[in-house]
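so my prof wants the structure for this chain in the tokens format not the other one, which i didnt know existed until like an hour ago. anyway here's the sequence
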Amino acid sequence: MKAQQTEIILKLHAMLDEITRAHALTADGQSIPAMRRLLLAKRKGKTAIAALLVNCLKAEAKQADDVSLARLGEQIGFAQQSLCPACRSKVGKKWKESEHV
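here's what i got, hopefully its the right format
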């Protein structure tokens, strides 16, 4: 678990580095490279969010009472909203497949 936390922190630091680089590029009047850096930062941020949510969802899934299951449903909904459209589609397909098993 400690290794996962360290990995997530490193991803968040990488995201911050990209944002800092984008800021410097903007200050130099280089808007297109700055936008690229911000998009990369966004991608790194989503990766970190996904890792955090996976850990949270795993912990919630271990508890099987009604309150935690309701909370798990809320977290799954939030997790799906943070996915890109292609990933959201893949998750939806997997969800439908699991309901038919």
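also thought this was worth mentioning. The first helix runs from residue 2 to 27.
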